Structure prediction request, 406 residues.
Amino acid sequence: MPLKIAIYIWVWAFLQLSSLESPAQSKVTDIRFDFYGDSISLQFDCAAFVDFTDPLSQEAIQGFNKKISIAGYEPVVRSLLSYKTKYKLDDWLFYQLIRKTAQQVSPKAENYHRYTLYKWYFLTRSGFDAILSIAGERILFYVQSDENIYNIPYRVRNGKQYVCLNYHDYGKIDFDKEKFAEVLMPVPEAQKGFSYKVTHLPNFRPDDYLEKDLRFNYNQNDYYFKVKMNPQVKTIFANYPVVDYESYFNIPLSAETYRSLIPVLKRNVKGLNVKNGVDYLMRFTRYAFLFETDSVVFGAEKRMTPEQTLLYDQSDCEDRAALFFYLVKEIYNLPMIVLAFPAHVAVAVRLDKPVGKTILYRGEKYTVCEPTPQRIDLKIGELMPGLERATYEIAYAYIPQKKTDQ
Prediction:
């Protein structure tokens, strides 16, 4: 055989062998999306995509976990944690980032089971203790949390509470008829508990805000406000559960909303004494918005944050109490207690000179303030008719921390 032909055959054979032995070439692409004003960019290897088309079962989900664990998603997880640190994301906002990332990798409408599995993977590999449970073709996704969460299902395992993150996708489930079994899939590095506390909102772009006109009358004077509101707040808290009063009363306003409202209120109360200033804030909260119950507006109980109360045209007593609490805290930073009656919520403020109806708490008198509209125009220190002898609990007490010299 001529040497030239032999060399050609040898080279051809080598190339064929190399193509058989080499792994599939990776195709790295950038996933880019907007996260409430922040630009997110994640590198994703398309060759690492793990599909899931099997019926739900322990074995099928465990198989998915084995495949995705070696697929090479560590850079995505590291990037997610980096963004969590960079933007100071609380756990609830971080979970929203995970939801958006999973949507980019495995769209929810395309394959709900796979989308949920990707969320579970990203959350557990970010260090959070989360579990899955299945019944038929339903898959529920839980995260460990020690906080009081009220309107969604939970499971208890080894004395720990796990709260469901995706119950809203199914509406109502009869757990007596459908018996869910936990998927046995330990992740040793997933040890962190999840907190629903939100200490600040995202850095929304100023262009994403809309102006909302508010007005109310105080002492025969009309006051007008143009408050900047961001509709994305509705999206962030669309599936936010009912949390305890301390958690949701202390959720702050976003930056632009704060700048458009708080300085104006401070100017308006500047010439008033503290009692009259609190009265002004009480009446602003009472009369600048229409009243409606959550069952009518949302079809279920929903506690709105102060910014949601500003954003929505209608709100109930709990929502008004949250907004009033926030305004008094920001402008006067006075001690306050939240009064939870069987069917009503109000706030009492500790003034230097108590007025009218007071509540004794730890040796101090707190003046009742009613930020929800009633049939009669209640003054500061007057309780809603019919509640004079009603039982109540002090659901939350706010005592300002004394500032120490640096």
Remarks:
- Residues 24-182 form one domain.
- The radius of gyration is 27 Å.
- The chain has two domains: 24-182, 206-398.
- The chain has twelve helices and 16 strands.
